[in-house]
Amino acid sequence: MKIILLCGGSGKRLWPLSNGVRSKQFLKVLKDKRGESESMIQRIWKQLQEVGLAKDTLIVSSEHYLEQIYHQLDYDIEVLVEPEKRDTFPAIVLGTTYFVENKKIAKDELICVIPVDPYVEIEFFKQLIEMASIYKNIEPNVFLMGIKPTFPSQQYGYIIPEEYSAAVKKVKTFREKPTIELAKTYISQGGLWNSGTFMFQAKYILDFLEKQQLPSSYSAIMRKYNLLQNSSFDYVVLENENNIYCMEFDGTWEDLGTWGVLCEHFDSNVYGNASTSLSCENTHVFNELDIPIHVIGLKSSIVVASPDGILISDKKQSEQVKIIAHHNGRPMVEERRWGWYKVLDYTKINSEQEVLTKRICIYSGRNLSYQYHHHRSEVWTILKGKGLFAHNEKMRIVQAGDVLKISPGDYHAIKALEELEIIEVQQGSLLIEEDIIRIFSDWETIESNCHHINEAATHLT
């Protein structure tokens, strides 16, 4: 069995910690067995490793999340990047055809799709292995993992089985995200939530594509990805499929998609520079800012502050944030494979000049790419640490207190010999990500293209 781990989604319901490039699966708000912080993707990857499925797992994600995946997991992880960010149907098609064409799997090989964000225990994955072992005995087109509902919700699809008492159930109806009234009806009929986890044989997707007269090879889909319907797999496939079976999972399963649910997994009521009064009840504060937050008298509330904004909400109503909060403009904080940055200030001087100030951290041994810009100059002030600075094919050691000036068109990169913190001030007419023209990313290649490397730098590399 091969695994497609879907790592898309924007996590709008967890604003302001999540933004356009820092989605909920990368937020380190959970605790592992040792009490150390971990993200949703780190937790699920450890579980896949524990049951021996990680080696057969392909992560399907978008370009926006690639650096965070490598940073939080490993550079050896296999990640398939979508040509453009789309919904689950095209992502699953892309992953399936990749397995067939690039990994040469048999067309009757089972493929299991798992979303990255549910909170489950290891028994969940053991049941998936069990489902794979009994798949051939029932020969469904799709085999779903169902969850017993705890309340009528519009957030999930509903699986209505023909016979509720059977361990493996033939599905009579599947409906994606019904109204509350319909959800109540489905629950009364023994309906289950769709966990988003299911399996099928690779040939099922290939046959589906051919029937729809769509490209069915990986190379063709990469070229014509926009032809695939930009909808969920549930809408495109499951609602129109008759040969579906399901198996109920009765262990721990939670969708950590809202602050109200996520807070239940916090081991403290306060994170960061914050405090709550004795009169507060069931209230959590999560502060990423350097300024203090003091909360007095709130009950069943969540207070979250990040460089992207501040949220104060009743926990039961917190999911409404997805309606009012938008990821407009540049992200104010972002994790990269080399470290992280926070935007400290942005000023538009006039119609032709902007100034952007960032605080950048580069982890020891990591580096920024060798790059240049057309429309901006930069000034870097080293706050702490020591590094190697490559500038127009020359290299030298830099350390705390040094000020580095970079003009438009200058080739430049930096490697941290020990953890570096830098204040970067950008000034120019167009301060956008697209004005970063990357030449090399690998430090050995960067060094080989620097003709003049001072002697002290040579001894340190």
Architecture overview:
The chain is α/β, with parallel strands linked by helices and 461 residues long. It folds into 3 domains: 2-255, Spore Coat Polysaccharide Biosynthesis Protein SpsA, Chain A; 266-318, no CATH class; 338-460, Jelly Rolls. Mean pLDDT is 90; it is low at 455-461. The strands form 8 sheets. A 6-stranded antiparallel sheet has the order 20-21-22-29-24-27. Strands 8-11-9-10-12 form a 5-stranded mixed beta barrel. A 4-stranded mixed sheet has the order 14-16-18-19, with no helix packed on it.
Largest sheet: 6 strands, antiparallel
Could you say how many structural domains there are in total?
A: 3
End-to-end separation: 44 Å
| DSSP E strands, number | 31
Pfam family, one: NTP_transferase
GO molecular function: mannose-1-phosphate guanylyltransferase (GTP) activity
Domain Nucleotidyl transferase: 3-264
Organism: Ureibacillus xyleni
